[in-house]
Amino acid sequence: MSMNTFNWKVAGLSGEGIMVSGLIFSKTSSRHGFYIFDYTEYPSIITGGHNTYQVHAGIEPVYAQKEKLDLLLAMNANALVEHLDELTSNSLVIFDSSDDKINIAEFNLPCKSLDLPMVKLAKEMGATRLMGNNVGLGASAYLLGLDLEILNSVIHDIFARKGQEVVDLNHKAAKAGYEFARNAKAAGQLGNWDFAAFEKQEYPESRVTFTGNEAVALGSVAGGLKLFAAYPMTPSSSVLHYLAAHEDKAGIVVKHAEDEISAINMALGASFTGVRSMTSTSGGGFAYMTEALGLSGVSELPLVVFESMRPGPALGMPTWTAQGDLQFVVTASQDEFPRFVFAPGDAQEAFEMAKLSQELAEKYQGLVILLSDKYLSESRYTAELAVTKLSHERHGFNQNPVSDETGFYPRYKIDKENAISMRSVPGQQGGEHINNSYEHDEYGLATEESQMRISQMDKRKRKLKLMKSEIPQQFYSGSLEDEITFISFGSTKGPLLEAQRQLAANGKKVGVLNLTWLSPFPIEQVSKVIKESKRVVVVEGNQCGQLANLITQETGIKLEENYRRYDGRPFYAEEIIKFINK
Amino acid sequence: MSMNTFNWKVAGLSGEGIMVSGLIFSKTSSRHGFYIFDYTEYPSIITGGHNTYQVHAGIEPVYAQKEKLDLLLAMNANALVEHLDELTSNSLVIFDSSDDKINIAEFNLPCKSLDLPMVKLAKEMGATRLMGNNVGLGASAYLLGLDLEILNSVIHDIFARKGQEVVDLNHKAAKAGYEFARNAKAAGQLGNWDFAAFEKQEYPESRVTFTGNEAVALGSVAGGLKLFAAYPMTPSSSVLHYLAAHEDKAGIVVKHAEDEISAINMALGASFTGVRSMTSTSGGGFAYMTEALGLSGVSELPLVVFESMRPGPALGMPTWTAQGDLQFVVTASQDEFPRFVFAPGDAQEAFEMAKLSQELAEKYQGLVILLSDKYLSESRYTAELAVTKLSHERHGFNQNPVSDETGFYPRYKIDKENAISMRSVPGQQGGEHINNSYEHDEYGLATEESQMRISQMDKRKRKLKLMKSEIPQQFYSGSLEDEITFISFGSTKGPLLEAQRQLAANGKKVGVLNLTWLSPFPIEQVSKVIKESKRVVVVEGNQCGQLANLITQETGIKLEENYRRYDGRPFYAEEIIKFINK
Amino acid sequence: MSVKAKPAYPFKPTWCTGCGNFGIWGAIKMGIGALGVPKENVVMVYDVGCSGNMADFNDHYGFHALHGRALPVAAGIKLGNQDLKVLVIMGDGGCYGEGGTHFINLMRGNHDVTLLIHNNNRYSLTTGQMSPTTRKGTKTKSTPVGSIEEPFNPIAIAASNNAGFIAREFAADIPKLSARITEAMNYDGFAMIDILQPCPVYNPAMSYEWYRENVISLESEGHQSNSREAAWKQAMRADKLATGLFYKEDKPSYHAQVKNLQQSSLTKQPISDIDISSLAVEFK
Amino acid sequence: MSVKAKPAYPFKPTWCTGCGNFGIWGAIKMGIGALGVPKENVVMVYDVGCSGNMADFNDHYGFHALHGRALPVAAGIKLGNQDLKVLVIMGDGGCYGEGGTHFINLMRGNHDVTLLIHNNNRYSLTTGQMSPTTRKGTKTKSTPVGSIEEPFNPIAIAASNNAGFIAREFAADIPKLSARITEAMNYDGFAMIDILQPCPVYNPAMSYEWYRENVISLESEGHQSNSREAAWKQAMRADKLATGLFYKEDKPSYHAQVKNLQQSSLTKQPISDIDISSLAVEFK
Ligand SMILES: Cc1ncc(C[n+]2csc(CCOP(=O)(O)OP(=O)(O)O)c2C)c(N)n1
Ligand SMILES: Cc1ncc(C[n+]2csc(CCOP(=O)(O)OP(=O)(O)O)c2C)c(N)n1
Ligand code: SF4
Ligand code: SF4
Ligand SMILES: [Mg+2]
Ligand SMILES: [Mg+2]
Predict the structure, then answer these.
(1) CB neighbour list of residue C130: distance below 8 Å, 6 or more residues apart
(2) Is the distance from CB of A521 to CB of A556 less than 8 angstroms?
C-alpha cells in the first residue's frame, strides 16, 4: 500500500472482456481526478490466452506500472498462478470460487482474499456471464474507496451504444459487487485488510486519458493530417482503427491499403497534391517502406511515418514491447537525406510530437519518423489537452508558380541562402515539374550530371542545419548533485521517473535525461549532461545498446554503464532500483 | 606518357559496341602479361547515351583508372567534347572525320591526332559499320606497341560464337587499322608524337581479369553456392546474368524471381533444406529484403546477400557509383542479430570474400551481406585464380538428429559453451523442428516467455564473439612514418593505392588502411592504426561520412578530416593528391 | 495447480471456439496421412495469421514464414530438395494481399507445392480488418462504414493464370477437404485449394449455416474439370459458391524443367568437389 | 561544337530507333489533347523503365515513382485531389511483377486513374530480362535456356477481377490508341490499356510485322464490350492477340464512395480551423 496511489489489476482469458473492464476501471479512476497509468499484456492469439490490464492511479502524477498490487481481480485460476509474485501481505485478491472452481487454500496466497461470486450474481439478475466482470469492478470500487456513481457514469458511456438495457444490467451488476464487498468487509471477512482510500480530486476540463497510439492519432489530426494510408500490424494497428472509426469527425480520408508499400506510396502521392499525409506500421512493415523513405528524401515530399516497435528479429513477439529498431529507422533507406526521428516519452508527448510531425514534415519538405513501442502505444496515460482548436499556416507553397523559359517551374531551385525551395502542386498553372525518384535538376527532370547532383545533395543537406535549430530542450529532470544520471529515449521515461521518485523518497538523488529527438541528434545537450554527470547509465529496451551507440557516434563519448531489457517486458522502477543498488 | 603504363579510352554512343571494343582491348593488354584496370561509364538508357571504356595497363600492378589519357579513341564528335580535359600534350586522339563529320581544328586539341577512316576502311572490306571499331583497336594496338597477333586471338575468342566469317572480317579490320596507323606514323603524320612501348611480360597460368561482379559470381560458385535467386537491378544484375548463363557449368540453379522479396525468401527456403544459397540486388531492392534479413537472423538460417551500391536516395543515379548504403546495411531489419558485412576492395578480394561468405554463412548459421558498388562491380581488374579445385566441409549439420520426448529435435538448443547448435534438414527422421520467424523455444516453436526469449537472444549473440575471432588482418599498407594515413572501405582501396604510389614517387609517404570487414568491426586494428598515425583522413563515397560514423561508434574516436565524393564518380588518385596538397 | 504447467508438444490449438481452422486442421492431418509418406518428408510452410498459428500444432518439419511470403519460401524449399512434399498454409490476407504478386507469379511457374488458403475474408490475427476477399460494403475495423473494394476472386484468377490444379472446399466438410488435400499433394505441380473458413469472431455473418446455404458442390452440377472456361464460369457465378475441383491439367512442374535437377535434388549434389577451371577460361 | 549543349526542355526521347514507345508517346499526347483539359490538371505518374523514361519528355506535372509503385502513388494523388486527371505509365515488369499486388488490389477499388501498360514482354531498361508476360521458352538474359513460367494474361485477370474498363491496343496504331486513351481518361474509374509494345532490341522476335500478323481487332469480330465472359474468352484465345475495348461497365469510382470527398477534394479542405474537442470527449 503506497501513499495516495493504488495499483489494481484484472487478469483472465483474452476475449473475456478483460480489456473493457480495465478501461472502465481506469476511466473511473481518472474521473476521480486521479492520474493514471494503465499497462496491458496479451498474447498473439485471438482468444484463450492470458490477458491482463492494470491501473496505477494516484493524486500525484504516476509514470509507469508498478509490480506490487494493491488489488488483484482474478478472473480465473491461472490469474492467481501468474500473478502470485505481485502480491504482498497488504494485497487483496478477488476471485470467484464457484465459477472458476478455485480452492483458494491451494494457492498459498500471502494476503487476504475475497471470494466474489461474480457470475452467479450476474446471472441472478438476468445478466450475461461477461457482465459478471462489472460485479468485480463494483467490488473493486468499494474496496479502493471509489465512488459508485462515477463507476456507473463510465459504464454508461462505454455501453450506451449497446442500448439502455445493457447499461442497466451492467449498473446492477456493479452495484451488486459494490454491496457484496461492503457486506463482506463489514462482516469482517477481510480480517484486518484495509486500504487507505484518498480523496477525489478536481477533474480539470482539459484532462484526458489515452494510449500512446490514440495520442498519436489525435495529435496527427490536430496537426492537419488529411490522408492516412496504412496496413495493420501490431502494435501500430490501433492508430488505423482509431482514425478509420473517426474519419468523419476528423475530416480525413483513411485507406487500408493492400500492403505497406502501397500505403506509403499512397501517402506520398497525396502529399504531392499538397495534403498532409501519414502512414503507420511496426518494424516488419517499416522494412518494406524503406525504399519509399528515400523517395520522400530525394523528391522533398513531406511524409510522416509512424513506427511502433515490438521485439524482433522478424516477427519476434508481436504483442510485447521493445526498443530495438532505433538504429534501423535512423539509417533506413539507401544513401543519405535529412530526416527527423522522434520518440515521444509518454502520451502527452506523443500527442504533441504527432502534431509537430505534421508541421515539420511540411516545413522541411521531407520525412518525419515517429517512433513508438508497444509499451507507449498501448499503455494509457493521463494527459491534458489544453488546446482543442487549432489553426495551421501552410509552409512552402508558391501560390503563383511561374514556369521559366524551359516551360517548367524550378521546384528544386538551388539557392545557397535558402535550403527550402517553394513547392507547386498539380492543378497550378505554371507550376509544372517532375517529382522524381531519380536524382534531378531544378525542375525535377532526371540528371546524372556531376555538378547538378552535388548541388541537389547539398541543397537537401542544407535543410539539416535548419532542422537542428528546431531541437528543443530535451526532457531533463536532474541536477549536478545527482549520484546517477539515467539516459534513455522514448517510453523508458516513465519507469525512470517512477524510479527517480521512489529513490528520492529514500534519499537517493538520480537524474533522468530522456531523449525524444534522435535525428537530428541533440549533440550539445547530451554532451553537456554527460560531462556534468557523476555517473551515467544508459537504459534502453534492446540487447546491443543502440542509444549508447548513437550517443557515441554523435558525441564521441563511450558510455560503459547500461541497463538493458530485451524480453518484451517494459522496465519496472523496482528493477531499475535493484539494478543500481546491486 | 607514364613509365611502363598506358591509359587508353574508347568513347562513343552507347549501343554502338563501345563495351565490346573496350573489353577486347583490355584482354589484349592482359594477354601481354600486363596488369589492367578498366573503368566504364554509361547512362541509364539503352542506346544513344555517352559510353566510355578505359583501360589502364602496366607491367606493375595498376589499381585504378587514371584521368590523363595516352590514347583516346573517339567514336564521335561528342567524345572529343567530353574528354578534352583528359588530354595532355603527350596524348594522342584517334577519330574518324569522314564518318563523324568532324572538323578537328574546332576542338583546339592540346595534342596530336590521327584521322582514321574506320567506317570507310571497314566497309571497303565488306564489313559492317560496327566492325569499324576493330579498325580503331588495330590502330591503338600499333600505336601503343601491342602485338597484332594477340589482339587477333582476343577478337577470335570474343566473336567465335558468331562464326568464322565474322572473326575474319574483324581480323581484317584490325589489320587495316594497325597498318593505317603504322603508315601514318611512318609518314610523319603524328609529328613528334611517340609512345615508349614496353615489353610483353610473362602471362601466368592463374591470371584472369574480371569485374567485381564476375568475381563475386565465380567466388560464390567456388564457395559452394547451389541456389541463386535474384531480381535484376543495376549495378548488381550482371551477377544474375553471369550465373544464369553458367548455370550448367557451375552446377547451380538460378531463379529470376518476381521481386526481391520473393528472391530472398526463396533463398531462405532453399537454405532450410541445407543448400548454400544467395541473392543479389542494389540498395533499392535491398530495402525490400530487410524484413527477411531478420528471418535469417532469428531462425539462424544461412544466407548471403550481395548488395551493389549506386547513388540514391531512391532511384538516384542507377549507372553510377556510391558508398552511401553502409550504415543502412549494417543496421537493416528490425531488432538485433549478428551479421557479417563485408566490402571487398578489388576483384581479387571480391572473389575470395564471396567464397568465404558461403562458408561463414553456413558456419555461423546466419546472414552475410557482401557489399559492393558500381565501381567495383563493373570495373575490371587483374587477379590470380591460384586454386580452381575446391572441396568444402559442411558445418553444423547433425547427421543423426534425434527428437526428444517432445517429439521434436532441439534445433536451437541452449548451450552456454556452444553458441552454435546443430541443424537438421527436412527429410531427416527425428530432426523435426520449426524454422520460425517468431521468437521460439529450443524446438523452434513460438514462445513469448521472458526466460526463453532471453536465452535465445543470448544464444544468438554468443555467435558474435566467435564471429569476431574470424576477423583477419585488414588491408594495411603503411608505416609509422607516413605523413597521412587514409582510412577507407571497399572499392576506394584502388584509387588510394594509386595515389599512394604517385605520392611515393614524389617522396611523400602515405598509408592506406582499407576495411573489408565492417561487421563485426575490427575495433582493435582500427584503433591501433589511428592511434599510431600522424594524421588520419577518412576517404569515402558518400556525403555524411558513414565510415567515419561507424569508426566513432565502434572505437569512440572522432575523426575530423575526411575526403568525400557523392556525385556518382569514383575517386581519382589525382584528385586525392590535390586534396591533400591543398 | 499453483505451478505453471509445461506445454505439451506440439502445442494445443489456440483458435477460438467454432473457428473453421479446426476442421481444416483435421482435414490436413487426414489428408497427409492418406499420402503414405514418412512424416519427415512433408514440410509445412506457414504464413502468419490465425491459420499459420497451426505451425505449433503439427509435428512435421515446419517453416513459419513472414507475412505474405510463404509461397516463395515453399518454392525455394522445393528447388532445394524436390524429394519433399511441400504444403503451404496461408490466409487470404497474406496470400492475396501482402503476397499477391507471389501468388500470381509463382503460380505461373507451376512450382510443385500445394497451397491451402484459409479464406475467412478477414485479417483475423490482427483483429479483423478487411482482406482482399472481404465483400464490398462490409464493416470491419479498418472499414467501419463499409469496404469500397469489390472482392478478389482467387479461383477465377487462377483459372485465368495457368494454374494446373484449382479447387475450393468448405472447412467443415472434412472428408471432402481431406481427400482433396491428398489429391492436391499427389498432383505434380502447383495445386491450390481456396478453403471457405468461418471466423465466428470477426466474420460472424458468414457462419457455418450461411455457408451451408450458399455452397454448392461442383460434382452435383456435373462440372467437368478439364475446361478452363467451365472453371472460370463456375468461379464467377454470383448466386452460389461452388466447391470441388474446378480445374486440373497435367503438365511438367517447375523443377522437372530445370536441367540441373534432372538427376537429383540440390541437397544431394555435393560441394566437396568443385572445379571452376572451365569457368575461368573466359576470363583469360 | 566544342561546348557541351544545354538540353532542351522537356528532354528529347532517348529510346532506341524503332522502339514502340515512340508511337505510344505520340498517342498519349494526342489522347490527352483531345480531352480538352488544361495541361496542369493532367498528372502523369511514371513507373521506372524505358517506358517511364518518358517522364522527362512531357510537359505535364509528373511523378516518377519507384519501380512497380506507380499505381499506389496514382491512387494517392487522386485521393488527395480528385479534380485531377491521373494517367499512369508502367511497364509489364513493374506492373505485373514487382507491383503485382498493387495491380490486382487497386483495380478492385475502382480508383479513377488510367493505366497504360507498355507491354514489351521484357524488363528492357535493365537490359532485357524475362518479365511476367514473357512467353514460355523465351531465352533472355535471366533465362538463357528459355523461361519456364507460362505468361501472365493481364486482360483475363482484369476481366476476372472487377476492372470496369479493359482494353488492349497496339503501339503502332496511333489513331486507335490515342482515341482509346481519351476514352479511358474520360471513364470514371479504373481504366487499363495493355499496350502491345515492340522492343526491337530485347524482343526482336515480336516485331512490328509479327504483331501485324498476330493482332486482330475486336471491332472486326463484332465483340460486345458489356460482357465479362466475352471479354475473358477473347483474352484467353491462343490464336490471336485481340485489340480494342474488351469490357466497359459504369460504376462509381473509389473517391465517389468516400464520404469526406463528396463536397470537395482534400486539397480544398483547409487546416486553418481544426477542432478536436468532439474527438476528445471519448477520452474523458
Ligand atoms: C510485414 C507485416 N505486415 C503486417 C503484419 C501483421 N499481420 C500479421 S497476420 C496479418 C493478416 C492475417 O490475415 P490472413 O493472412 O488472412 O490470416 P488469418 O489471420 O485471417 O488466418 C497481418 C496484417 C505482419 N506480421 N507483417
Ligand atoms: C526495387 C527495384 N528493383 C529493381 C529495379 C531495377 N529495375 C528498373 S526498371 C526494371 C524493369 C523494367 O521493366 P518494365 O517495367 O517492363 O519496363 P520497360 O523498361 O520494359 O519499359 C527494373 C527491374 C529498381 N529500379 N528498383
Ligand atoms: S479470430 Fe477467427 S480465424 Fe482467428 S482463431 Fe478466432 S475464429 Fe479462428
Ligand atoms: S530497349 Fe526496347 S523498350 Fe527500351 S528504348 Fe530500346 S527498344 Fe525501347
Ligand atoms: Mg484471413
Ligand atoms: Mg517491359
Answers:
(1) A256, C122, C123, C138, C140, C142, C143, C147, C149
(2) no
> Which cell numbers hold the place of D110?
475502382
Please name the residues in contact with C6: beta carbons below 8 A apart, sequence gap of 6 or more: none
Longest dimension (CA), chain C: 75
Q: For residue D144, is pLDDT > 80?
A: yes
**Ranges under pLDDT 70 in chain A:** 1-2
Which chains border B (3 or more CB–CB pairs < 8 Å)? A, C, D
Q: What is the best residue among B47, B231, B233 to mutate for testing ligand 2's pocket, by most ligand atoms within 8 Å of CB?
A: B233
Give the helix/strand (H/E) hosting B381. strand B380-384
Nearest by Cα to B547 from B562, B531, B567, B530: B562
CB-CB contact of A305 with A288 (8 Å) = no
Residue list, ligand 3 pocket, CB within 6 Å: A 46; C 15-16, 19, 21, 50, 120, 124, 199-202
Which H or E run includes B327? Answer: helix B326-331
Q: Pick from A407, A273, A411, A428: which is nearest to D40 by CA?
A: A428
Average pLDDT over residues B306-316: 98
Query: ∠ at Cα C165 (C164, C169), nearest 5°?
Result: 155
Strands A35-41 and A380-384: antiparallel
Q: Does residue B47 carry a pLDDT above 90?
A: no
Q: Is a pLDDT exceeding 60 seen at residue D229? A: yes
Q: How does the average pLDDT of chain B come out, rounded?
A: 96
Quote the distance between the C-alpha of residue D87 and its chain's center: 7
Chain A 214-243, residues with CB within 8 Å of chain C CB atoms: 231-234, 237, 240-241
Residue B46 has pLDDT above 90, yes or no: no
And the C-alpha cell for A559?
558510455
Closest-CA residue to A437 (of D129, B237, D22, D69): D69
Q: Which residue of chain C has the CA closest to B32?
A: C284
Cβ neighbours around B575 below 10 Å, total: 16
Residue B130, number of CB atoms within 10 A of its CB: 16
SS3 B19: helix
The span from the CA of B172 to the CA of B178, in Å, is: 10
Does the CA dihedral B282-B283-B289-B294 come out positive or negative? positive
d(CA B505, CA A370): 54
DSSP 8-state symbol, D115:
E
Helices (H) and strands (E) in chain C, counts: 9, 11
Supply the pLDDT for residue A274: 98
Grid coordinates belonging to C95: 496470400
The count of residues in chain C is 284
pLDDT surpassing 60 at residue D5: no
Nearest Cα residue to C257 out of C109, C75, C71, C114: C109
C69, three cell numbers: 511470403
Residues of C in contact with B333 (CB under 8 A): none
Residue A383 pairs with which residues in a beta bridge?
A208
Q: Are B359 and B317 in contact (CB under 8 A)?
A: no
Q: Which amino acid is at B290?
A: T
Res. B48: pLDDT tops 60 = yes
* Closest residue by Cα to residue D269 from A277, A255, A231: A277
What φ, ψ does residue C64 adopt, rounded to 5°?
-90, 100
Q: Three-state DSSP class for B531?
A: helix
Neighbours of B530 (CB within 10 A): 17
CA distances to A130, B435, C171 from C87, in Å: 40, 15, 17
Place of cell 474439370: C225
- Which residues are within 8 A (CB) of D4 and not within 5 positions of it... i.e. 6 or more apart? B81, B82
Instruction: Note the pTM of the prediction, 2 decimals.
Output: 0.98
Peptide bond into C132 cis (omega under 30): no
User: Does an H or E element contain B279, and which?
Assistant: strand B277-282
* Runs of H (alpha helix) within A332-373: 347-364
Q: How many residues appear in chain B?
A: 582
